[in-house]
Amino acid sequence: VLRFKRPSEPPSFQTAVADARDNLAKKGGKGLTEKDFPSLWSEFKALFTDAQYGKCGYCESSVTGTQHGDVEHYRPKGSLQELPWDRARLGKEKPNSTSVDGRKLDPLCDEGYWWIAYEWSNYLLACAACNQVWKKCLFPIAEAPRCVPPMQGVHETPLLLNPFEGPDPADHLRFDKLGAIEPRDDSRFGRATIDTCGLDRLSLQGWRGPVAQEAARLAESLIVAEGHAHLGVRTGWSEEEILDKIRSLGDARRPYAGMVRIIVQEITDLSWDDITALS
Ligand SMILES: [Zn+2]
Questions:
Q1: 240: number of CA atoms within 13 Å, CB side?
Q2: In the chain, N or C terminus with fewer CB closer than 10 Å?
């Protein structure tokens, strides 16, 4: 939900993955098994963890300290699934659990985007729930029908929002004051991202809720006057104190900072750049 800067690819990466890449190229994507995808990317996880402040690239929950975290392939490497048309088959999180009930994804093919399994630009840090429980082998795109199996050189428009590039998540997602997420203006990107990663699961909303309420309360306490030049204040705090609290809550290192910024902008009409520039 927050935009991060992709870590630079270290020179050692190319050397580390050269053999695995050669093997895949030789086989041309045919008859691949798990053995053809040794998890060499794990060696480089710390770089993504650092760049993403230890947060999942999809749900923005904190990953470090509580779980291993996955180096997730944005485009699935081994096979491909599709979101079901019937929304009842998207599944629901079991109460007090990480598991999901009734999620029935449609298989598309046994081949994925194997040629970018060892491409730096295809990686991000994700939590186990977003990656393994919800996204699995999904990669929604705008084109329909799509090229199956996926082929190199075929242009596709990914609908899954990427924390490093492509459409800005803030233009496609919105949150209410209780932390519930929904697509902004019926955005297809927003819808597909929520459905793919299960971003509307209740446990997540539970974590986001108090942060969203705090963000909304602080934003509402700033009354934006004409031209954003002056801010009126409705609480006992000074304008500077409120701005400090908002900046702290929306600091990139904090979980759900992306949501905080979206909520603040919606209520005050001030972008995060505006908020940080105000004094
Ligand atoms: Zn996540």
A1: 1
A2: C
